[in-house]
Design a protein that fits this description.
- It is built from ten helices and nine strands.
- It has about 220 residues and is an alpha/beta fold.
- It has a single domain, classed as 2-enoyl-CoA Hydratase, Chain A, domain 1 (Alpha-Beta Complex).
- It is globular, with a radius of gyration of 16 Å.
Length: about 220
């Protein structure tokens, strides 16, 4: 489901489930967290295999959830995304192809988000009677502002690479996102380690995470 390639200054994590558009199961979330937390390199680069970045939560998993297990699944996703947001390394998301639901949340948890012209982004949870509960409601507002966040979350519409850049969802549209990760990794590792925490803004994480998990569980109990 995941593969890891280590260099001196860069750890590359590949979401390697192309037949499922790199959807994340419980085990996939845990493995992703472990791969990020254990990185000794100053930069971690996350991208997807095949023609998608990530479809987000595995729908086969979600369809078996009830209220209690739904809250637990939301908490599991939050732990992984929070670990990425708190990582000792700079985490770079390279989005090539669609990012949907939890895939958008994964990108949002990263310090730097870049994409190719083939990328698109959508918070599709509302079309399934759910929403992104891995910290996405908070991080999306922080990234693009409340107006764009409400539009994306409540409509479920997809935005292309250019619109994503215009609203601040990504910083650059490039042909090879890995080169951005390499560019960052070429800098002084001590400077990266000191600077990165200062650039992270997280707001009231605990309160928002509690509300997300509870609401996600209620939707699955109905």
């Amino acid at each position: 489901m995941l593969s890891v390639t280590d260099g001196d200054h860069l750890r590359e994590i590949l979401l390697d489930r192309p037949a499922k558009r790199n959807a994340l199961t419980r085990d996939g979330l845990d493995r992703l967290r472990e791969c990020v937390e254990s990185a000794a390199q100053p930069v971690v680069y996350v991208h997807g295999a095949g023609d998608a970045f990530s479809a987000g939560a595995d729908l086969d998993t979600v369809q078996r959830l009830d209220g209690e297990s739904g809250q637990a699944f939301a908490r599991r996703g939050q732990r992984t995304m929070n670990a990425i947001a708190d990582a000792d390394s700079v985490v770079v998301a390279g989005v090539d192809g669609p990012a949907r639901g939890g895939g958008v949340e994964l990108a949002l948890a990263c310090d730097v988000r870049v994409c190719t012209p083939r990328a698109s982004f959508a918070e599709t949870g509302v079309t399934l009677g759910l929403f992104g509960a891995w910290g996405g409601t908070r991080r999306l507002r922080q990234a693009v502002g409340s107006t764009h966040a409400a539009d994306l979350s409540l409509s479920g519409r997809a935005v292309d690479a250019d619109e994503a850049r215009e609203m601040g969802l990504v910083s650059r549209v490039v042909d090879d996102p890995r080169r951005v990760a390499e560019e960052i990794a070429a800098n002084d590792p001590d400077a990266l380690r000191e600077l990165t925490p200062l650039l992270r803004v997280d707001g009231d994480r605990e309160t928002t995470d509690d509300r997300e998990a509870a609401a996600f569980g209620r939707l699955l109990d109905e």
